[in-house]
Amino acid sequence: MAFLSSNEWTAICDKFINAQNFTEIKSRNDPENDPYRSKYKARDLLREIHCSLKSFEAGDGDEDGGPQGGHQWPTEQPVDGQLEEMFERGLDGDSPTGQRTVRLAAVEYYLGVNHVDTEELSAGQEHLMNCMKLLERCRVSTENVSLFIHVRNQLGILWAGRGETETAQSFLEMAEAIYLRYMKEDGSPPTDLVEYFTTNEKLLTHQEKNKKFELAYTHTMYYLAQVYQNLGQTERAATYCHSTLQRQLQLGQFNPIEWALNAATLSQYYITKGRYMEGRHCLSAATVISGLAGEVPSEAAAQESEIESERRDQLRQKRAEIARCWIKYCLILLEDAKKVLEDNIGELDTDLQEELKRKRMLEVEEEEKGRKSALLFGSEDTFDSIASLEETVSCLLPLDFTEARNVFLVGQNYVTQAKEYFQMDGYVTDHVEILQDHSSLFRSLAFFEEDVERRCKMHKRRVDMLETICLELHAQYYLMIRRQLMFELAETYNEMMDLKLTLANRQADTQSLDSHTIKKFNSLCSASTKYFQMFLDSLRSPEGKFPEHLEKEVLRPALVARFRVARLHSRLICSLPLTQLDNLNNSLENYKYVVQYCEAHPEAAAVVESELELSKEMVGLLPLKINRLKARMAANN
């Protein structure tokens, strides 16, 4: 029987340490024209180790120990069946033959990772599958379970990178199953991969082994989150992402600013699903953890050092992005409350409001239960800070103006923070999107305001923040953004017009409107018409021709704009019959367009169902009104 001498074993361990040094440290300084120089040196050392191990294996008469090349694919055998074989059959990991087999498998693993790192994917796959084949001879145990998981993680990454998501899924799910069963049946800190080539005096402590093993499983969860996202299984993806972030904090293995941005991104999934408590928790944790990255370097320091300048910009940008996620949280909370509380004409349903307030105490109790069962982030050092930040904004739907205003103010504070980085000079698109969100915050808050005059002022704030930018943006370079702003401005003026008329009717006490009110009403009506018409004109060709076929992304906005223009022309208040006739004819022309377009393009009817129905009705009624007006005009003449 062949045995390794102490010197031979020490030589193998030294080669492995050097290979790791080349891979993890020296490779960072490789020149651009030879980026894999250190990785190639590490590969040579790993091959020498492989040859040494194979020679002693052959000397022991173990001829069938090595793989014969080729590829192995995930079997169709159920996971439970595969696990049973892995845990119940094969060589013992602590037997001499089992140890040699696992060491050979480990070298194959490291060679596979090396080839993948140097973009030689086919060779990398072959080595990783050789590792898998060798491990088939072994029973999962404390000595090898970490390698069982690592190799499947790497194969999962490899196949995911090739777009073979389901193949990646099978490897990663098996890695997860192995971890879960091992923890259930054993759970002791397993041998780490580096310990296969370490002398006894350099073995890791239990704590170190446990941390590295848990980190390997954290990687499994991280990759599975991406796989499930690519498969469209968003709920599972969110669950795995949340668990990954939580484990990263527990293990202390994370980059604070990147972790924070990932948590803030996850919050956006939760809030779109109405899970405001989880969304708020993610955002609060993101804000607190981002603070661990330190203070933003001063401008003076940034100017003196290129590294500090880059760090300053990165910190400011990431924190501004987290602020934007907070804005979305506040906005969606307000918008979802509006959807719940509005009646069939879009106004606040006060009866429902009172009913929901009565149920609020029960909801608070349910929140507390959910809070305890939720997967929380943080450690003893950060729990209190995260909880304190959560208390600044509710995770319950606001039911009245006071509650809505509290949410609004938090959102507006983050608008200010986001705009400090995403300024108009350099970040036009981002800056405008933040302004649009700010406008939407005002719109949602206005829904809760009972005072009509104050509601008008809120909409006027929206106009003030959007109108100048809309007119200043380059018509060609920012066409889509300008269209969005035109449409929003048109709708805002339209809402102000309706509110002004409501207020005037209340104050007039059923008497006719005074000239000042009529002038204000017509001014708002004309402004709304102007922006709807600007939007429609933006759809014209360079020759000024309106398209015969509207593209899908502008179909509804264009038809709605036509419908609104028709309605606005008919609502203008004027004393001159000739002007009134022109307005009615313009109104009829636009109503006809909606009807005729839907007749020529039947698929459009479903997009503007209610507008089409009203347009058809007005196409039938307006000619009668026009003819009566013409008859009066003729009689007066």
UniProtKB/TrEMBL annotation:
Query: What is the designated name of this protein?
Result: KIF-binding protein
Taxonomically, which superkingdom? Eukaryota
**What are the alphabetically sorted keywords of the record?**
Cytoplasm, Cytoskeleton
Coiled-coil portions: none
**Organism of this sequence:** Hippocampus comes
Instruction: Give GO cellular component annotations, separated by semicolons.
Output: cytoskeleton
Q: Where is the signal peptide?
A: none
Q: What is the lineage of its organism?
A: Eukaryota, Metazoa, Chordata, Craniata, Vertebrata
Q: Kindly state a single biological-process term from the GO annotations of this entry.
A: efferent axon development in posterior lateral line nerve
Q: What's the stated role of this polypeptide?
A: Activator of KIF1B plus-end-directed microtubule motor activity. Required for organization of axonal microtubules, and axonal outgrowth and maintenance during peripheral and central nervous system development.
Hey, which family's this protein in?
Answer: Belongs to the KIF-binding protein family.
Q: Where does the protein end up?
A: Cytoplasm, Cytoskeleton
| InterPro entries for this protein | KBP (IPR022083), TPR-like_helical_dom_sf (IPR011990)
